[in-house]
Design a protein that fits this description.
106 residues, flat, 82% helix, mainly alpha
């Protein structure tokens, strides 16, 4: 269950970050509201996951989900370009997330 909570925290992490981009500096109402709600839900689910997961592992995975998710959506939604070094570095983050999950005792 704690891993599901952590994944939900990651989903809302990506949600609020993408909504913030759409909010245009909080000048568009709906994306601004989604940003605030997503931020709160992300923190709540992370806090619930932290009741059972080690801080370092959970936080690294949560931020990793955010980095990977926002990178993918940045390319898909905003036509952002990735260089080869960026792809390599994001791939290393994915490897780190998988490694943390596989090696976790929880």
């Amino acid at each position: 269950m704690q891993w599901i909570l952590l994944i939900l925290a990651g989903v809302f992490e990506v949600t609020w970050a993408v909504a913030m981009k759409f909010s245009n500096g909080f000048s568009v109402l709906l994306p601004s509201v989604v940003t605030v709600i997503g931020y709160i839900l992300s923190a709540v689910f992370l806090a619930l996951a932290l009741k059972h997961l080690p801080l370092g592992t959970a936080y690294a995975m949560w931020t990793g989900f955010g980095i990977v998710g926002t990178t993918v959506l940045g390319v898909a939604l905003f036509n952002e370009k990735l260089s080869v070094p960026q792809v390599i570095c994001v791939s290393l983050i994915v490897i780190g997330i998988v490694g943390l999950k596989l090696l976790s005792k929880e």
